[in-house]
Amino acid sequence: MTLDRAVMIFAGTVVLLGIVLSFTVHPWWIGLSGFAGLNMIQAGFTGFCPAAMVFKAMGVRPGNAFK
After folding, report:
1. Tens of pLDDT, residues 27-45
2. DSSP state string for 2-60
3. What are the residues facing 61 on neighbouring strands?
4. Angle between the N-to-C axes of helices 30-46 and 3-24, in degrees from 0 to 180, rounded to the nearest 10
5. What is the C-alpha separation between 55 and 41, in angstroms, rounded?
6. Structural domain includes residue 12
């Protein structure tokens, strides 16, 4: 698995988790999805992605988007 795929899978999981928690636990959990979305937009503009840094430190091999 490449760094790109790991980041996208993680981001998608966080978004879906936020949606599920907002329906099952408390509506304010939708903020988790909002935070993940804002972080994805920020990473798209700046190239800085904290999740990519963590995955890179864990030894996930680099992909094309996050070097």
Report:
1. 999 999 999 999 999 999 9
2. BHHHHHHHHHHHHHHHHHHHHHHT-GGGHHHHHHHHHHHHHHHHH---HHHHHHHHTTP
3. 2
4. 160
5. 19
6. yes
| Range(s) of the domain holding residue 52 | 3-57
pTM higher than 0.90, yes or no? no
Residue 39, both tokens? 């972080």
In three-state secondary structure terms, 66 is coil
Give the alpha-carbon dihedral of 43, 64, 2, 21, to 10 degrees. Answer: 20
Number of domains in the chain: 1
Residue at 62 is within a domain: no
Per the rule left: phi > 0, alpha: psi between -120 and 50, beta: everything else, 59 is left
